[in-house]
UniProtKB/TrEMBL annotation:
Protein name: Ribbon-helix-helix protein CopG domain-containing protein
Highest taxon above the source species: Bacteria
Organism phylogeny: Bacteria, Pseudomonadati, Pseudomonadota, Betaproteobacteria, Burkholderiales
Length: 71
């Protein structure tokens, strides 16, 4: 008997041992849950996407000292 593989939970190249833990207030957590549910995504997947969006926003800021290292 073989087990059918489900969908990948992380994008290719993302290592499962490189987790980042973020403390959220109950209100922030509730907002994240609502956003994730509206987009049919897991909370973790939505948090990762929001971090990536924020990173691009900071890198695009001309006054930012954060280097633009690509996507």
């Amino acid at each position: 008997m073989t087990t059918v593989k489900g969908p990948r939970r992380s994008p290719r190249g993302a290592l499962s041992g490189t987790s980042v833990y973020v403390g959220l207030t109950p209100l922030e957590r509730a907002e994240l849950e609502q956003i994730a549910a509206a987009r049919h995504r897991s909370i973790s997947s939505m948090a990762r996407e929001l971090i990536c969006i924020g990173k691009r926003h900071v890198q695009d800021d001309p006054g930012s000292s954060v280097p633009n290292t690509g996507p």
